[in-house]
């Protein structure tokens, strides 16, 4: 993990602070909102370019792992997120919606780093990646309708329109770029020359979008700093429950250590960039929703690092028990 990825949570927090400061300049605060969508489209193009959709069939080669992983990510986790929000965030509907959006979108990229650190099954984790992305894009509007619709008033037509714009446009651009590259430049040109640089490009434009959002909508947050601490407890409880549940399910089904570690990390890591892109586009007048998706990674990344160490401890203990 290079320094840019290692400290991305600190960089994101810095983007929030810089956006708040820039928002005090009248001209910047007035026009910053018009930069959000272009920045997000560029970021999402980078994400979609790297998703191996041609390997989608590999998601189902291990049916037990695929079934369990998808059930936890798209049934157990959403229900848990709604319940925790009901207990801890009833007083702040916007934070509740943001919390749900964060917890129903499983990660599609850097969770593989933590899988490697914990000596998990990286091949198995990679195989589930395309299905995770497709299902979260399809189901996120459904979750918002089912859960967020009971929390706050939703403009469904505007929500669907926003999701289509912010996701369909970069997806189509990525498809066209892949076709052009394969047809006229070379089948592996993108993988060899562009993909290694995309992670930095994605994080750069994500942070630019965050700065723009907080520059345009940050006044409310400055006046209500207490919201930052409201999310810490439900987020931590979510991670603890999902980790314990993943361990229990892996043991019950009979997964080995590698597969159980992969299950833990594919169900723990969250996809805040895509959820944030949708929040910034669909809820531009509710900065607390986006704030929940910004705070999430600040807590999530240290938690995933700790989980990797706990998994290694479990692995080493098993090895010691067997050799003993």
Description:
With 324 residues, the protein is mainly α. It has a single domain (3-319), classed as Na+/H+ antiporter like fold (Up-down Bundle). Helix content is 81%, strand content 0%. It contains 17 helices and no strands. Helix 5 (63-88) crosses helix 15, helix 14 packs parallel to helix 17 and helix 16 packs antiparallel against helix 17 (287-323). The chain is globular, with a radius of gyration of 20 Å. It starts with a helix and ends with a helix. The model has no long low-confidence stretch (mean pLDDT 80).
List keywords for this structure.
globular; 0% strand; 81% helix; 324 residues; mainly alpha; Na+/H+ antiporter like fold; single chain
List the helices and strands and how they pair.
Layout: H1 3-6, H2 8-22, H3 26-31, H4 33-50, H5 63-88, H6 93-103, H7 111-117, H8 122-127, H9 129-146, H10 156-185, H11 189-217, H12 219-223, H13 227-230, H14 232-253, H15 257-268, H16 272-282, H17 287-323
Instruction: Please count the helical segments.
Output: 17
- Into how many domains do the coordinates divide? 1
The first-level CATH class name = Mainly Alpha
The unreliable regions are: none
Task: Report the structural category.
Answer: mainly alpha
- CATH architectural label: Up-down Bundle
């Amino acid at each position: 993990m290079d320094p840019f990825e290692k400290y991305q949570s600190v960089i994101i927090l810095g983007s929030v602070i810089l956006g708040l400061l820039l928002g005090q300049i009248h001209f910047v605060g007035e026009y910053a909102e018009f930069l959000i969508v272009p920045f997000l489209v560029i970021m999402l193009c980078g994400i979609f370019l790297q998703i191996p959709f041609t390997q989608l069939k590999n998601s189902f080669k291990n049916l037990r792992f695929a079934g369990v992983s998808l059930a936890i990510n798209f049934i157990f986790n959403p229900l848990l997120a709604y319940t925790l929000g009901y207990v801890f965030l009833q007083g702040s509907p916007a934070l509740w919606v943001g919390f749900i959006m964060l917890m129903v979108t499983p990660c599609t990229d850097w969770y593989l780093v933590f899988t490697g650190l914990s000596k998990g099954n990286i091949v198995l984790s990679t195989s589930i990646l395309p299905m995770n992305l497709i299902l979260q894009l399809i189901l996120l509007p459904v979750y918002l309708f089912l859960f967020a619709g009971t929390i706050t008033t939703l403009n469904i037509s505007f929500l669907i329109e926003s999701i289509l714009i912010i996701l369909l446009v970069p997806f189509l651009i990525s498809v066209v770029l892949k076709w052009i590259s394969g047809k006229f430049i070379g089948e592996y040109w993108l993988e060899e020359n562009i993909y290694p640089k995309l992670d930095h490009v994605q994080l750069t434009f994500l942070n630019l979008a965050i700065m723009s959002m907080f520059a345009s909508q940050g006044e409310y947050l400055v006046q209500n700093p207490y919201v930052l601490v409201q999310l810490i407890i439900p987020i931590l409880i979510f991670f603890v429950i999902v980790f314990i549940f993943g361990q229990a399910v892996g043991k019950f089904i009979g997964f080995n250590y590698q597969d159980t570690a992969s299950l833990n990390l594919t169900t723990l890591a969250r996809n805040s960039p895509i959820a944030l892109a949708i929040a910034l586009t669909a809820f531009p007048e509710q900065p607390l929703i986006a704030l929940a998706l910004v705070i999430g990674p600040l807590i999530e990344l240290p938690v995933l690092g700790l989980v990797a160490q706990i998994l290694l401890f479990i692995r080493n203990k098993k090895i010691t028990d067997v050799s003993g």
